[in-house]
Amino acid sequence: MNENIRIALIPAYEPDVKLIVLLYSLRDSNFRSIVIDDGSGEKYAEIFRWASEFSTILTHPRNCGKGKAIKTALTYIREKFEEPYTVVTMDADGQHQISDAIRICDAAEKKPDTLILGSRVLKKKVPIRSRIGNSITRGVFTVSTGLHIHDTQTGLRAFDSRQVPAMLSIPGERYEYEMNVLLEFAHEKRSIEEIEIPAVYFDNNSGSHFDTVKDSYRIYKEIAKFSASSFLSFLTDYSLYSIFTVFTGEFGGIGLMASNVTARIVSSIVNFTLNRKFVFHIENNLWQSALKYFTLAAGILIGDTFVLNRIVANTTLNPYVAKLITEAFFFIISWFEQHLFVFRKEGKSRTRKRTA
Q1: For residue 261, how far is the Cα from the chain centroid?
Q2: pLDDT in tens, 236-290
């Protein structure tokens, strides 16, 4: 069996001398280093000339984004290196310590089916932009997947060579790629493990090229698609319910129930189609997905109708306000169940473990 080698993958855009220090330390720790010059330009040619003394340099003629840089390096690694090997992604600004890279590589080699994250401990001294951004991303990720990741924005990640094909297939070319990786692993029930590392920042993180508006949009786009699908289905459901109620109101509770059931059947078909085709991109297992989805929809419909009738019968709220209240509650349940049960691809069970 070939010896398992360790490869540090480092996307670099307009780096400074800290990249050279990092590469020197990696070489001393027996890492192979692959650096991607992501369109830094002639001004930074000298930095990359120095870097070439310690690593392989791959070059993009223009800035393509962090996700694209990672994929360029992974394609090169897959072509040039024989398995087994371990890949660790690191930032070029010196925030990641060699000792932490070694620790997460150790973990990845012991658990080759697991994505290992170097999870930063974010304290008050951490730049507010990083602290707030991570908190928001962590919250949205938890709500959308049911999986709690302490540091969703960490760039220090290690994985076994057998994970490389999957990493190359995940969409995204800029900062959203790293979030898409986590979403894909969560969606496929693949294991993610966090190992605690210290947070290191230089000059209040001024070296970061993260565009708060553009890159945040890219990160949240995949999550927003799920919300948009659910909201469109809600509008379909609520509009049909309101129309049907006008004609069935004189029949009391039976009419209310008939309106709610009919509207929900139509909106469920709309929601299933949108989620399957445009949110989760599931092309196979139509009947299996449909069975799971409509089983869930039937359960939610029963609960929704019961709660709706109880609210209307026991409060002074009109049926339209009552419908909004019940929909808000069951929206949350549906959100979790579709992610965790209906549209999850078959995969191995996952573990979530924090180690010091």
Answers
A1: 34
A2: 988 998 898 888 867 777 888 888 889 988 988 998 888 777 776 666 677 777 8
Round to whole Å and give the CA distance between 266 and 244.
Answer: 12
Residue located via tokens 């189609």: 273
Q: Bridge partners of 37? A: 12, 59
Kindly report the CA angle at 158 between 114 and 280, in degrees rounded to 5? 55
Spatial strand order of the sheet with 56-60 comes to 56-60, 32-38, 5-12, 85-89, 157-160, 114-121, 191-198, 354-355
pLDDT, tens digit, for every residue of 22-54?
999 999 999 999 999 999 999 999 999 999 999
Question: Could you tell me the domains of the chain?
Answer: 5-210 (3.90.550.10), 223-342 (no CATH)
Contact 74, 81 (CB under 8 A): no
Reported as type and span, the H/E element at residue 92 is none
| Antiparallel, parallel or unpaired: β 85-89 and 191-198 | unpaired
Backbone φ/ψ region at 352: left (φ over 0), alpha (ψ -120 to 50), beta:
beta
- For 296, phi then psi, to 5°, come to -60, -45
Please give the model's pTM, rounded to 2 decimal places.
0.65
Contacts 24+ apart (CB under 8 A), 313-320: 313/253, 319/245, 319/249, 319/256, 320/242, 320/245
